[in-house]
């Protein structure tokens, strides 16, 4: 079974300040998503968490879903 991976860089504003990267993976019916904050974003004094469930940290946040 082939695995498909898509990467999306997340940036803000006209200056495209790097915030992080989303990685989507699918293998058959199994799908996962991972977000990791960019080091530049974590070092920025004006940074903020993009969601309450994703506190500012250097570790990735994973979610997964497998359709029934």
Overview of the molecule:
The protein has 68 residues and is mainly β. It has one domain (3-65). 7% of the residues lie in helices and 50% in strands. The chain has one helix and four strands; from the N terminus they run βββαβ. The chain has one helix spanning 39-43, and strands at residues 3-12, 17-27, 30-37, 61-65. Strands 1-2-3-4 form a four-stranded antiparallel beta sheet. Strand 1 and strand 2 (17-27) form a beta hairpin.
At a glance:
The protein is mainly beta.
Write the layout of secondary structure elements.
Elements: E1 3-12, E2 17-27, E3 30-37, H1 39-43, E4 61-65
Antiparallel strand pairs: 1-2, 2-3, 3-4
Low-pLDDT residue intervals, each spanning 5 or more residues: none
Q: How would you sum up the global shape?
A: elongated
**Mean pLDDT reading:** 88
What is the string of SSEs from the N terminus onward?
EEEHE
Instruction: Please summarize the sheet with the most strands.
Output: 4 strands, antiparallel
Write out the strand line-up for the largest beta sheet, numbering strands in chain order: 1-2-3-4
Radius of gyration: 14 Å
The CA-CA distance between the termini, in Å, is 18 Å
**Total number of helical segments?**
1
Summing up helix and strand content along with how strands pair, one would put the structural category as mainly beta
């Amino acid at each position: 079974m082939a695995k498909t991976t898509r990467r999306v860089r997340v940036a803000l504003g006209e200056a495209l300040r790097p915030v992080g990267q989303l990685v989507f993976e699918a293998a058959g019916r199994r799908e996962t998503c991972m977000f990791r904050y960019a080091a530049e974003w974590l070092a920025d004094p004006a940074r903020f968490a993009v969601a309450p469930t994703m506190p500012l940290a250097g570790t990735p946040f994973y979610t997964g879903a497998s359709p029934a």
